[in-house]
Amino acid sequence: MPTLDELVARTEITDVLGRYAHAIDRGDRELARTCYHPDATDDHGRFSGTVDELFEFFETYGATLESTFHFLSPPTIALHGERAEVETYCLYRRQPVDGGASAAVFQGLRYFDIFERRADRWLIAERTVIIDWEHAAPPLPTTASPPTWVRGSRGETDPAAPLTRSLSTAVRRRADSADAGDQGFIGRCTSS
After folding, report:
1. What's the pTM value of the predicted model, to 2 decimals?
2. Which stretches of sequence are listed as region Disordered (predicted)?
3. pLDDT, tens digit, 9 for 90 and up, residues 43-90
4. CB neighbour class for 155 (10 Å; exposed up to 12, middle 13-18, buried from 19)
5. How many beta carbons lie within 10 A of that of residue 184, not counting itself?
């Protein structure tokens, strides 16, 4: 039976993965950056290097995309103390800015991450994006959904923007708490 620390670690890791996908798809790279340790590395296929370099690349590459969509599986997590190997399957779609003139791309990916718990926070220390398949996404429907549908977008115009703000606030609050020496939930549960 898993211990309370193991359950909390799995929950925190899963939350980081979800926050990353949400932040990238909503165009909030600052929030996505909170999913990595400052010295993390990332091999993202088109780019490989430090996390700071990755987000410089995302700034440039992201400007060429109208939208992205990440659909994540539940992660498979192998915990080893303060380190975890994590694999997450991802269906990914990207749409170029050119208004549909170029085909969107649909990919089957896996994120293979090394998470580390530092200062009571589980974050990505190393990421490798593995591509299993890709193809041009199906063409746009001949009869589009009516304008009565609530449409997603990036930034503050997205209907889920309040969630993005809440996630950012929670991350800042947790970082401030850790900086102030609070042991956090796990520390309170394990200390006597």
Report:
1. 0.85
2. 141-183
3. 999 999 999 999 999 999 988 999 999 999 999 999 999 999 999 999
4. exposed
5. 15
Neighbouring residues of 22: CB distance < 8 A, sequence distance ≥ 6: 31, 160, 163, 164, 167
- Which residues are bridge partners to 170 per DSSP? none
Q: Residue 81: which residues within 8 A CB-CB, separation 6 or more? A: none
Q: Which CATH architecture has domain 4-138?
A: Roll (3.10)
One-letter amino acid of 143: T
Contact present, 106 and 91 (Cβ < 8 Å): yes
Q: Residue type for 151, please?
A: R
* Long-range contacts of residues 166-169, Cβ cutoff 8 Å, at least 24 apart: 167/19, 167/22, 167/23, 167/31, 168/28, 168/30, 168/31, 168/34
